[in-house]
Amino acid sequence: MMRLVRWLAVFAAMCVAFSVQTAEAKRLKAAVGFPKGNAVNQAVEGFADYVEEHSDLRVRVFSMSLLSLKETAPGLRDGIADIGFVLTAYFPAEYAETNLVANLSMLATSGERKPSPGMAMAGAMSEYVFNCAECQTEYKVQKQVYLGSGASPSYMMLCNKPLRTIADLKGKRYRSGAANFSRWSEHFGGVAVSLPANDVYEAMGQGVVDCNMMSATELSNLSLFDVTKYIVPAIPGGVFAGVATTNVNLETWRDLSVEERQVMLKGAPRANSIVISRYHALANENLTTAAEKGIEVIAAPADVLAASDDFVNRDLDQVGREFTTAYGLDGVKAKIARFTGLLEKWKKLTEGLENDPEALAEVYWKEIYSKIDPKTYGM
């Protein structure tokens, strides 16, 4: 009987200790402006799982419930969330230094073309921003700590009219989501049309636009299979890179222990690799499905590719002027040159990793995150 009493006493003490430990565990809120099942949501959930597995932190992921995509940056700044998926492109002035290099994304698909330019772009973005004092300052002003970037698959032409020659590009109406894509279409004699993504289906179906410049992921995400008859994968090129996948509120970060910050630094490249790899896989799957549905996939001829590359190189000066004049950035030419070199480096580092997110995360860790000191970064 006494043995049973002692055992019960020990068990009760263990339960109390566990309850105290659980009560003391830091609970963090992560905001994602995408629904469950989306690659971004899966990436942030993977980040949360990694953090919970390797620390006493507890992370709850809120999908499209705590903050919308446009609300995430200010909400993270104000402490409504502790972790957030931030689209820097939504805030051109607040994140001008980051957006400068994000606007160079067409370099990712010019020159030597790789199967997954988003992997190279994300690596170059992350390495650049982590080591850019001006970039770090703008995140600090927004009370955030940057933990790396993701990027979309290559942008392509999803059309209801065929584009087979340079002459075919002229006179078409192109839905554009960014200034560089608008300049591309106008350079080739087209008309740039600005439309929200959710209006693209109706616009293509009614002939308001001839082509939509987006990645192949949107064929399923926006149901564009129904209104697309032709796809030209190689143009206009570029990726969407104005992304900070798992930014952390500054006060939250500084309240963490060194060990907890290190866990987050180890989890972040995994999150980036998940979102990039899953978008890449979905884009390829959608291109296969498109062919099965009778949508013609057109290989752009060599002269179109060369003309597009020429535009991209010439447009670097325009990007520089825009960010110097509109946002008052200094040393823009040197920054563009530095990023261009990083992007070429990352094209080589990510080669052959298109279907291996674990290997991609390891490369990101080795080349970037392992060199960040959790004792001082963000402090």
How does this model look, in words?
The protein has helices spanning 2-24, 39-54, 69-77, 96-102, 117-130, 133-141, 166-169, 179-187, 200-205, 218-221, 250-255, 258-292, 302-327, 332-349, 357-367, and strands at residues 27-32, 58-63, 83-87, 144-145, 155-159, 173-176, 191-194, 211-215, 230-236, 243-249, 296-297. With 379 residues, it is an alpha/beta fold. It has a domain at 26-151 and 240-294 and 327-371: D-Maltodextrin-Binding Protein, domain 2. The strands form two sheets. Strands 7-6-8-5-9-11 form a six-stranded mixed sheet, with helices on both faces. Strands 2-1-3-10-4 form a five-stranded mixed sheet, with helices on both faces. The protein starts with a helix and ends in a 12-residue tail after the last helix.
Write the layout of secondary structure elements.
Elements: H1 2-24, E1 27-32, H2 39-54, E2 58-63, H3 69-77, E3 83-87, H4 96-102, H5 117-130, H6 133-141, E4 144-145, E5 155-159, H7 166-169, E6 173-176, H8 179-187, E7 191-194, H9 200-205, E8 211-215, H10 218-221, E9 230-236, E10 243-249, H11 250-255, H12 258-292, E11 296-297, H13 302-327, H14 332-349, H15 357-367
Parallel strand pairs: 1-2, 1-3, 6-7, 6-8, 9-11
Antiparallel strand pairs: 3-10, 4-10, 5-8, 5-9
